Amino acid sequence: MDTAETVEQAEAELAPPTDLEEAEAAYEKFVWDNLPRNFAGHFMHGMLGMTGFRIFNTPTFLPAYLHLISPPGLSSLIVGGGQALQNLGGILSPIVGASQVEHRTKVLPVSMWMGTLMRVQIVLIALAAWFLKGAPLIVGILVCLFLLGVFQGAQGVAFQMLLAKVIPTRRRGLLQSLRNLFGGLISAALAWFAGTYLIGRNVFGNGYATTFVLAAILTSLGLTALAVLMREPEPPTVKPRARALQRVREFPQLLRADRGYFYFMIAQTCATAGQIGAPFYILFAARVMPLTGPHGGADLGQLSLALLLGGSLSNIVWGPIGDRFGFRSTFIGAMSSWALATVLLLYASVPWAVLAAFAGLGAAQAGFQMSSQTMVLEFGSRDDVPMRLGLSQTAQGLMNTIGPAAGGIIAWLAGYRPVFYLSLAFELAALALLIFVVDEPRYRRRDV
Questions:
Q1: By the 8 A CB rule, do 426 and 274 touch?
Q2: Cα(215)–Cα(305) distance, integer angstroms
Q3: How far apart are CA 267 and CA 108, in angstroms?
Q4: In the chain, pLDDT over 90 holds for what percent of residues?
Q5: What is the domain count for the chain?
Q6: Mean of all residue pLDDT scores within the chain
Q7: pLDDT band at 249 (very low <50, low <70, confident <90, very high)
Q8: First and final CA of the chain: distance in angstroms?
């Protein structure tokens, strides 16, 4: 029998593709056709946009500034409270954000609005640092941190949804490793510059305010680049529009439907709880490397450089491992690094050991963020991605709110060491869950 005739007969017997299958094929074609442009847009946003937020959110500059302006004896409470308020703002907004984007075929406009409102808060904090003093300054910064958390929670869902739509699964690690590598290198250099020059020389009358403005400018450039370059596909199916409260009622079903996601949520929550010590890293390091005096600005710059450089360079490892083996493996590596770095910081007595601990903490935090944000995209169906993101970020926001507030109270009453011991316990609990309970969703399917 003629082979060509056999093939034609077999093709003729196949059922014609449905409208949904054709729409899915067109969606996939759009993703791959526009991948270079969208990859470049997300890379620029990460390299510039996230660079600004790294400088602002790194646990060095803002905690040090809050410590500087706080009344004697209350600095630990205010530093922990500032971190808690920022995360309090992000508790419910991810769910609201998810409910606002899950029914939309285009997510980019919502992302731009939320991203812009985030950047406004950083500018307002800088202006407060320049023009306010005493209690109004502290209250103004705390209010802006709360609002920053509100918009950050909603924006986080929208931007991760964009990444899931336009970057195929096995390219996400490469994208994040490149953008975090170059963005981290820029952040590390700017952090050293800000600590040594802007803060050390008190540029424009307030080096901290000048640093915050620099962060706002960088992150605004990144957002602009994403808006210009991004080409967003319209998915064949989306969730029907529903109120946020209705989606909240569906959370138990979402967790029951995928036990792997349920255990991942527990591990992610434990890892997030491990960040209870993050606002106090820089304050604890001051016992070896003082943050005030003739070398205070230089020490702050070196510590920030070590933290950001460790996070940046580690992406060379985290991204390729995640693409090749799945992000559960990078999650395990990150939590192992975090625990070791915490122990090193606890017992460091010379500057080089403190700097090494900060580099390890930076690497661990980079691995944790990449792993948790990417791994959650791979559980379940595409239509449920917004709500999985919303649930995960809400749980993180809740834990990040309780953690720093509790850490501030513990540090105030008993010092920093008990805070770090508690942080270490949560890190080890997350590590045990990842090793023995959580499965790798990448192995459930083999898309490229």
A1: yes
A2: 15
A3: 30
A4: 19
A5: 1
A6: 82
A7: confident
A8: 36
Around Cβ 37, how many Cβ atoms within 10 Å? 14
Q: Give the span between the Cα atoms of 265 and 388, in whole angstroms.
A: 10
The pLDDT confidence band at residue 318, using thresholds 50, 70 and 90, is confident
Burial of 4 (C-beta count, 10 Å sphere; 0-12/13-18/19+): exposed
- Burial class from Cβ neighbours inside 10 Å (0-12, 13-18, 19+) for residue 445 reads exposed
- Dist. CA 111–CA 115, nearest whole Å: 6
Residue 3, domain member (yes or no): no
- How many Å apart are CA 162 and CA 38, to the nearest integer? 10
Cα separation, 101 vs 157, in Å, equals 9
Residue 434 within any structural domain of the chain: yes
pTM of the model: 0.69
Torsion of CA 27, 33, 39, 41, to 10 degrees: -90
Q: Which one-letter DSSP state was computed for residue 239?
A: P
Residue 158's alpha-carbon distances to 146, 229, 396, 441, in angstroms, are 19, 17, 16, 22
Check which CATH number belongs to the domain holding 58 and give it.
Answer: 1.20.1250.20
Question: Which stretches within 250-326 are classed as H helix?
Answer: 251-256, 259-273, 281-285, 296-325
Residue at 16 is within a domain: no
Distances (CA, A) of 261 to 93, 250, 251, 366, 441: 21, 15, 12, 21, 9
Instruction: State the DSSP code for 102.
Output: T
| Residue 209 CB coordination number (10 Å) | 22
DSSP three-state, residue 71: coil
Q: How confident is residue 16, by pLDDT bands cut at 50, 70 and 90?
A: low
Yes or no: say if 68 and 129 are a contact pair by the CB < 8 Å rule.
no
Residue type, 346: L
What domain range is 195 assigned to?
Answer: 34-232+241-444
All residues at 6 or more sequence positions from 446 whose CB lies less than 8 Å from its CB, including other chains: none
| Per-residue pLDDT tens digits for 104-113 | 778 888 888 8
Q: Does the residue 136 lie in any domain?
A: yes
Backbone angles phi, psi at 220, to 5 degrees: -70, -35
Between 355 and 403, the higher pLDDT residue: 355
Residue 106: partners with Cβ closer than 8 Å, 6 or more residues away: 232, 234
